[in-house]
Structure prediction request, 71 residues.
Amino acid sequence: MLRTIFKAVAYSKAPRTTFAMLHPGKAVRYRKFRWDMRHAYAPRLTALTAAAVALPLGLWLGRKRTERVEE
Prediction:
């Protein structure tokens, strides 16, 4: 019971540190995953591709819509 209370207090004061102390392997994996996602090329390529497709498509659809309104 005391252990649960101490753990709850520790998580409320410093959740990241407490998690790292109680689960060191998972903490390292999560930290590495965050670093990989920040420095990876795939999310950047995905964002650029989405912008390259969505922007012209949105412009084209906007022009088509205004053409119908004017007619």
Summary: The mean pLDDT is 87.
